[in-house]
Design goal:
The complex is a heterodimer of chains A (235) and B (304). By secondary structure, chain A is α/β, with parallel strands linked by helices. Chain A has a domain of 163 residues: P-loop containing nucleotide triphosphate hydrolases (Rossmann fold, 3-Layer(aba) Sandwich), CATH 3.40.50. The termini of chain B are far apart. Chain B has a two-stranded antiparallel sheet with strand order 1-2. Classes of the chains: A alpha/beta (235), B mainly alpha (304). The interface between A and B is medium-sized, with 23 and 16 residues.
Chain lengths: 235, 304
Amino acid sequence: MKTLLELDSVAARYGPVQALSDVSLVVREGEVVAVLGANGAGKTTTLRAISGTVSRSGAIELDGKPLKGGPETAAKSGIAHVPEGRGTFVDLTVTENLKLGAYTRRDRSVRADLTRIAEYFPWMTERGGQRAGTLSGGEQQMLALGRALMSRPRLLLLDEPSLGLAPMIVREFFRIVRQLNEDEGLTVLVVEQDARIALRASQRAYVLEVGRVALTGSSGELEGDESIRRSYLGY
Amino acid sequence: MIAAAFTDFMQQVVSGLASGGIYALLALALVIIHRSTGVINFAQGEMATLSAYIAWALIVHHSWSYWPAFAATLVISFFGGIGIHTAIIRPVESGSVLRIVIVTIGLLVAINGFVVWQWSGEPQQLQSPFGTEVYDVGGVVVAAHDIGTITVALGIVLLLGALFRFTKVGLALRAAAVNPEEARLVGVRVSWMLGLGWGLAALLGGVAGMLTAPTVGLDPNMMAAVLIYSFAAAVLGGIDSPIGAVVGGLLIGVLLNMLSFLSQYGMFDWFTEELRLPMALLIILAVLLIRPQGILGRPEVKRV
């Protein structure tokens, strides 16, 4: 499989606080890769380094080309970042949120894609005129996913999608992500606190510890190893 | 008696709508900048005055005819607004709100000084494009300038509304205003959108300035009172609501004229023209105390 995203010794800081010291990882085309670890390990910062919302050093390449600049450039290169805590525009309607997802696109099939998204989330058509802020937490997370898909991303970054959602909704969310991965070959890098569900949804995983990669392996291996589960994943 | 009262009443409503249309334009400009930059642009009135002077200079000094000068002034105002944002506001945008507010006050003083320096403080006459005719509509005397003002104001508001609601750039403008970080993640160049917002605000102010000058006379301070009425309009409608700004503007215009009307007929007979401005301030105060979000604004919810 072709390498889509490569991070080589990436570091990032918020003012004086070093959030990432040395992260190297690879995501291949068509993979779902999970980034796990405790609070403050640098999971969110890893995603923010990729989308350019935090100042970073080290090399980040998408498709062999270095990624530079801010989030607008990342969006243009095909990276859709769904940030932690439902990335929706609460004052805008469901349809407007979806259309914004397609903001970087210049082609004419945006309308067709709205229909395609509706196959995964039928309620979004019926409630297209509703303000996103009036949706439930689960619906907002689905909308954030739908909006990311509208950009036809090469790489989807998901930050803690399970946060604050009922287990049933989390399972539904990851079912859709898996289905997108299988049906459309969508490449996903997902950060999760809930290691169990992330390992089931992914093919490979990285475990971060205080801003470094502590270990990596196939999701099946990590899930099967009890000592790893106990010491790193906490279940 | 009653027929005469009705005629007077209608007359006040029409002229109230005309001045209200101007307040609506300027209030809309204030709201656009408040939504994107998060501050009240105190220089909004002087920016409008400068636009009116530019139109006047084109007409009087360069012998342009009215409408080409009007259009050129709008273009100049639009790019001038973008320029002000880029050169003066953007450098302080990341700082505290107070810093930006102080910069807009400085801008007010600077533009006012520039106008006096360039064209002297002497009052000038900017013609009305609608002429000075008055029509008699069933006893109600209606000035052509008032009808023209209402038409132009509503036309501009509708065009702007369509831009915000139906175009991609309008959607991006709204997205950048309500959630800049998220907007950048979907690829919107937020700093461009903020500049565009300043451009549109300056354009709206330009229209307001050019429509105000024919009635009050073109002078460097002509927008000072209009700006206060527009503050009242924006606060009344909801400082974050574009539709509220328009509704608030028309309401303030008609409301103040109603007081004049009533005072003619013995009610509120203490009310004289000098009390119009204090009345606007009273409205601001009352709205902030009773319903801070205004008629159409949404109450501010802070996450704790």
